[in-house]
Amino acid sequence: MWEKYYSWTPYQYSANNPVSFLDGGGLKVEIVGTQEEIKPLFQGLCLATGTMPKYTKTFNNDGTITLDITGFESVDNRFSEEQGKLNELIGSITTYSINKNNEADKYGGGMYDPKTQAASVGSLVYNRKAFYNRTQTERERSIVNKILNWTLGYQGHSYSYYDFYDIIAHEFLGHAYDQYKGRLRSEYNAKKTANQVRKKRGKPLRDRGD
Predict the structure, then answer these.
(1) CA dist 103 to 44, 108, 134, 191, Å?
(2) Residue 184 domain-assigned (yes or no)
(3) How far, rounded to the nearest angstrom, does the alpha carbon of residue 11 sit from its chain's CA centroid?
(4) Domain total for the chain?
(5) pLDDT in tens, 49-68
(6) Domain presence at residue 182
(7) Domain hosting residue 50, numbered range
(8) CA pair distance 158, 125, nearest whole angstrom
(9) CA proximity to 133, closest of 108, 169, 167, 159
């Protein structure tokens, strides 16, 4: 895979850091999608990490495109923690993927598959409304709101808005990074990671209705 990394040193196989990282298979972080999906997925990674990633592009036989992320330039030093995570994932011995998968909408907009190491986004839109890890109709929200109000006196937080880049932060920098570190995947850590990104982007934190 050396031809994909000609712009870096011979140690690119380990993200230019052979002391800290081992990459026997020469694997990487990749973004996979159709022509329409690739651009917003790439933008989502940029927004979640404050970077301009470097990549090589491959046109696949099934009509999709793969961007192999080979490195990045920092464009916002507020995202140093997220950039550190991205650098580690690039240098891992596993391929981590970011893609679009409509099934993710069943789980509030995003999901992570530990078997395939794929972080998936359901909808590539901004300010999408999600409810308790499930996308729900207005009628369903109304019913549950009544139950919450009656049992808990709890109002106003049965759903929250999200942007697809904080889903990438949640699934990729949260769950995928936990797996890379050999930790149990923590929903708390993933939500914390997404909220850190939202705060830096000037967005309200996602509430308990995530």
Answers:
(1) 19, 10, 11, 20
(2) yes
(3) 26
(4) 1
(5) 999 999 999 999 999 999 99
(6) yes
(7) 2-124+165-188
(8) 20
(9) 108
